[in-house]
User: Which sequence fits this backbone?
């Protein structure tokens, strides 16, 4: 564990060196992440120009959920940015190299693809939440901060578990599967209240690909929606369960991995 | 020469065909997107019959059509160009007896045809069982839609070529390419029909090429732009096709002179 932390700081240094070599791109990537986050907000703002509520949820509540949704995603994507895992490690055979490294192989893959710039999403999310909380006149107790941190970590673990599991599918199938973009699409529906969807999608977003736990459920706690308190409190459990499932699939995958040739 | 590009379109189509798992995930993505937006819009409409001049049925049909159109015009050739510039492959491409940018456009077309036939059409037929939704009834309307869609593809490809060629000057431009993608999705009318935007935003968008990428063909398909107005819309698209050629040819000329192969 200590080794991983030391390596993390090393990789962090390398990351900034390589990124700052192309300063303009580094900046434009930060800006474009911001553009992406804002564009989803535009959807909400434009829609609520025409209606006042969406299934009993007001504009500011939806904005708050969206703000919350950005935070765990930012934390997750800083540490688990291996979107091209299949291409880079399986098809091009880089996984062979990973297996010869002394630290845990998943940690090694994560370290090689860290994206610290993603952490800015936390700030964007907090600003959006702050704005919505102000509009809604929400009040928070001191322990809400701790709960917030706990919920964010739990939600990040859900992402980590799901995407680690999906990356590990590449160990079983050598070809490109296109599953990750599909899951990414689904994850975006977790930022709207689940009661807008029908039963099938609700069950999918709660139990199978639990993306409701990275947005609406934990955010509902801070919005004081008591109906969802049970789900909000379940978030840490879901986080741990799904992270363990992800690790398990990864382990099985590594055991099955046989190299892709050259 | 034309035969060469036809062959490139065919090869790309066949390459896409090779990744079999992609079919299923593609069709599923398509349906998930439409399904989720269907419920989302249902919740947004709530009890209301009409928002910004569209009923909830028209809206769901619009979403389905917009995603079908996107399947055809969407491509990642800017990222391919960026990759080839970075790998140094572009040096070889440039001494080959064809126009590199036209090659990229031809490959994009092969990909577009593949996605349209394999993802969008089956997805659309599947969706039409669940959603109140009708295909254009006359050959003329189909002709207008397909013409408009083809022009939409050309416009989107031109924008991609532009952002791709920028790699020659910026060396790395993932940021710009990503921003372009989300901006195109928003301003083309994929996420929201243009008529939903505030009037001042619509006024600005009239001076931008983006709504020609999705909003125009989708409105023709939905019948919201009738045959008498379709000609006008198509003409607007043609104007954009021509206007966008200018910066591309300019940048391309500069790029060839300025090229630095990184690594290789």
Assistant:
């Amino acid at each position: 564990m200590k080794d991983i932390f030391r390596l993390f700081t090393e990789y962090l240094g390398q990351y900034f060196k390589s990124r700052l070599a192309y300063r303009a791109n580094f900046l434009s990537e930060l800006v474009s992440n911001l553009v992406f986050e804002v564009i989803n907000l535009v959807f909400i703002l434009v829609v609520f120009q025409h209606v006042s509520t969406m299934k009993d949820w007001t504009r500011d509540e939806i904005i708050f959920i969206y703000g919350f949704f950005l935070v765990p995603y930012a934390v997750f994507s800083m540490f688990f940015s291996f979107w091209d895992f299949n291409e880079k490690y399986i098809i091009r055979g880089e996984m062979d190299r990973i297996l010869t490294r002394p630290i845990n192989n998943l940690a090694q893959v994560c370290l090689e693809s860290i994206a610290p710039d993603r952490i800015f999403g936390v700030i964007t999310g907090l600003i959006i939440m702050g704005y919505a909380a102000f509009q809604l006149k929400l009040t928070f107790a001191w322990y809400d901060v701790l709960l917030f941190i706990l919920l964010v970590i739990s939600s990040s673990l859900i992402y980590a578990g799901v995407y680690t599991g999906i990356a590990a599918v590449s160990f079983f199938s050598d070809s490109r599967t296109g599953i990750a973009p599909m899951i990414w699409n689904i994850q975006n529906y977790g930022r709207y209240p689940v009661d807008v969807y029908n039963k099938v999608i609700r069950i999918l977003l709660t139990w199978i690909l639990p993306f409701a736990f990275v947005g609406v459920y934990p955010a509902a706690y801070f919005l004081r929606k008591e109906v969802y308190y049970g789900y909000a409190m379940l978030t840490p459990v879901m986080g741990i369960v799904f992270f363990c499932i992800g690790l398990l699939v990864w382990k099985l995958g590594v055991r099955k991995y046989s190299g892709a040739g050259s | 020469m034309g035969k060469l590009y036809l062959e490139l379109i065919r090869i790309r189509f066949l390459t896409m065909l090779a990744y079999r798992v992609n079919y299923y995930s593609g069709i599923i993505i398509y349906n998930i997107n439409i399904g989720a937006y269907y419920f989302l819009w249902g919740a947004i409409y709530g009890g209301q019959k009409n928002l910004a001049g569209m009923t909830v049925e028209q809206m769901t049909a619009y979403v389905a059509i917009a995603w079908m159109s996107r399947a055809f015009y969407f491509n990642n050739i800017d990222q391919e160009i960026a990759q080839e510039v970075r790998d140094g492959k572009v040096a070889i491409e440039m001494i080959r007896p064809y126009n590199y940018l036209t090659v990229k456009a031809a490959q994009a077309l092969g990909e577009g045809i593949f996605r349209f036939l394999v993802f969008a059409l089956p997805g659309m037929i599947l969706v039409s069982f669940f959603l109140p939704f009708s295909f254009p009834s006359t050959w003329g309307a189909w002709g207008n839609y397909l013409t408009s869609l083809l022009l939409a593809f050309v416009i989107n490809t031109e924008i991609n070529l532009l952002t791709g060629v920028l790699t020659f000057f910026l060396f790395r431009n993932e940021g710009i390419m990503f921003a372009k993608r989300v901006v195109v999705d928003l301003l083309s009318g994929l996420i929201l029909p243009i008529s939903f935007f505030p009037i001042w935003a619509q006024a600005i968008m009239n001076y931008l090429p983006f709504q020609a990428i999705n909003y125009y063909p989708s409105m023709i398909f939905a019948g919201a732009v009738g045959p008498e107005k379709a000609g006008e819309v198509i003409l607007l698209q043609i104007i954009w096709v021509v206007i966008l050629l200018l910066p591309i040819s300019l940048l391309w000329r500069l790029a060839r002179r300025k090229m630095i192969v990184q690594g290789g």
Summary: Chain B touches chain A at residues 19-22, 25-26, 28-29, 32-33, 35-36, 39-40, 42-46, 48, 51-52, 170-176, 178-179, 182-183, 185-186, 191-192, 196-198 (CB under 8 Å). The radius of gyration of chain B is 19 Å.
